[in-house]
């Protein structure tokens, strides 16, 4: 055999192997997986139909978002993904002096456990509010909202009500906290 033919065949085989390796690495980079305690928010074109797919969300302006939980997804060209932790975390809240209903100034300290809602709507709301922000920015924003709500609750109660009727106080705090679903929490 001619040496030129052998070199040509070796070059073609090398190019096929190299091309296959590049294709494999490209496909591996486009396939994203997440553990069960995280969600993957995928944005970009060709997300899917929200009527036929339960993990695709479309807002009033027509923007689409896919939420993948505990599994994998092969992303298409020009799509991007961001991981969102679904783990709970705690925030320490300390109010400045708050004047109660009876005019007594008190300072309050509290610990709030915060978690992203598990349902699609909650994850989407969280993504709309906080995607792209650092964990510290998210914690600061949530702390400010909870601090404001705690001050509002304390200002509508007397010191005796706060101390003696803990269940009523806890119920008011829970009501306000559940109202924070606008943030997907």
Description:
With 185 residues, the chain is α+β, with helices and mostly antiparallel strands. Helix 3 crosses helix 5. It is elongated, with a radius of gyration of 26 Å. The model has no long low-confidence stretch (mean pLDDT 85). Belongs to the band 7/mec-2 family. Flotillin subfamily.
Question: What are its keywords?
Answer:
185 residues; alpha+beta; four-stranded antiparallel sheet; two-stranded antiparallel sheet; 10 strands; 43% helix; elongated; Flotillin_fam; transmembrane; SPFH domain-containing protein; transmembrane helix; membrane
Task: Please render the helix and strand layout as text.
Layout: H1 3-30, E1 31-33, E2 38-43, E3 56-58, E4 64-69, E5 72-74, E6 80-85, E7 89-94, E8 98-99, E9 105-106, E10 109-114, H2 120-130, H3 135-155, H4 159-164, H5 166-178
Helix pairs in contact: 3-5
Keywords: Membrane, Transmembrane, Transmembrane helix
Pfam families: Band_7 (PF01145)
Family: Belongs to the band 7/mec-2 family. Flotillin subfamily.
Summarize the structure.
This protein is of the alpha+beta class. 43% of the residues lie in helices and 23% in strands.
User: How many DSSP helices?
Assistant: 5
* Largest β-sheet summary: 4 strands, antiparallel
- List low-confidence stretches: none
Proportion in helices: 40-55%
Order of helices and strands: HEEEEEEEEEEHHHH
Number of strands: 10
Cα radius of gyration in angstroms = 26 Å
Q: What best-fitting shape do the alpha-carbon axes yield?
A: elongated
**Mean pLDDT, all residues:** 85
**Percentage of residues in DSSP E strands:** 15-25%
User: What structural class do the secondary elements suggest?
Assistant: alpha+beta
Keywords: Membrane, Transmembrane, Transmembrane helix
GO molecular function: protease binding
Protein name: SPFH domain-containing protein
GO cellular component, one term: plasma membrane
């Amino acid at each position: 055999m001619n040496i030129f033919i052998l070199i040509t065949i070796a070059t073609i085989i090398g190019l096929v192997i190299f091309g296959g390796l590049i294709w494999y690495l490209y496909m591996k980079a486009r396939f994203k997986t997440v553990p069960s305690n995280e969600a993957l928010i995928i944005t970009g074109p060709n997300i899917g139909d929200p009527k036929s797919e339960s993990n695709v969300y479309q807002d009033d302006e027509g923007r689409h978002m896919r939420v993948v939980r505990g599994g994998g997804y092969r992303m298409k060209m020009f799509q991007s993904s961001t991981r969102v932790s679904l783990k709970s975390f705690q925030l320490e809240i300390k109010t400045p002096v708050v004047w109660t209903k009876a005019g007594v100034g008190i300072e309050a300290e509290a610990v709030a456990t915060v978690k992203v809602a598990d349902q699609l709507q909650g994850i989407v709301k969280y993504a709309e509010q906080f995607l792209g922000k650092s964990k510290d920015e998210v914690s600061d924003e949530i702390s400010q909202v909870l601090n404001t709500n705690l001050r509002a609750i304390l200002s509508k109660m007397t010191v005796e009500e706060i101390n003696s009727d803990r269940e009523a106080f806890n119920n008011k705090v829970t009501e306000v906290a559940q109202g924070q679903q606008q943030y997907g929490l």
